[in-house]
Design a protein that fits this description.
The chain has a 6-stranded parallel β-sheet. With 193 residues, the chain is α/β, with parallel strands linked by helices. The model has no long low-confidence stretch (mean pLDDT 95). It has one domain (2-179): Rossmann fold, CATH 3.40.50. The chain is 23% helix and 21% strand. The chain contains 4 helices and 6 strands.
């Protein structure tokens, strides 16, 4: 059994001070850096939008290719990433899910590594994390969401919590970072749905 940590879009524009900030985006970085030691396979996704895209009809301009806003958070331990999957690179799509990466096929990558459990952390709960969770489940991976390593935009009251309910209804297991063993896997007694 192989497990992968999938870190979704922990980029400057989704953190405080960015173009489309999450209120506590900086806080997930500390948690993610801490839990990386529990995984031998660590991958990340990032928004990598062109300057002109239909996506910006819905959202403020953010994570434009080769800008500081598209860079990963400076405190995120990027040296531990095995691969980076870029998404939203075309002007005709949104690219919410990490599984919509345009540089590499995420499903093929995970299957080649014999991954059967995907643990998801990152930004934002209501959009990119939610879409990634749905696609992970749809592609047959046992999917865990590390709640204290996820933050949301929180546009409307209740959106953040509703996103976790949707993930759970779809079949994801919601855990917290303290549910992980330092050596990998879940501590005894943690439900695997």
């Amino acid at each position: 059994m192989n497990r992968a940590l999938l870190i979704v879009d922990v980029q400057n524009d989704f953190c405080p001070g960015g173009a489309l900030p999450t209120p506590k985006g900086d806080g997930v970085v500390t948690v993610i850096n801490k839990i990386m030691k529990s995984f031998s396979i660590i991958i990340a996704s990032r928004d990598w939008h062109p300057q002109v895209t239909v996506h910006f009809n819905k959202w403020p301009v953010h994570c434009v290719q080769n800008t500081k806003g598209a860079d990963f958070h400076e405190e995120l331990d990027k040296d531990k990433f095995d691969k980076i999957f870029v998404k939203g690179t075309r002007n005709i799509d949104d690219g919410y899910s990490a599984f919509e990466a345009t540089n590499l096929d995420l499903v093929e990558y995970l299957k080649n590594k014999n991954v059967d459990e995907v643990f998801i952390a990152g930004l934002t709960a209501e959009y990119c994390v939610l879409s990634t969770v749905f696609d992970s489940i749809k592609n047959g991976f046992k999917t865990f969401v590390i709640k204290d390593a996820v933050e949301g935009i929180r546009q409307n009251e209740g959106d953040f919590e509703d996103a976790f309910e949707e993930m759970e209804k779809a079949g994801a297991t919601i855990i917290n970072s303290e549910d992980l063993k330092p050596t990998g896997g879940l501590k005894e007694g943690i439900s695997r749905n």
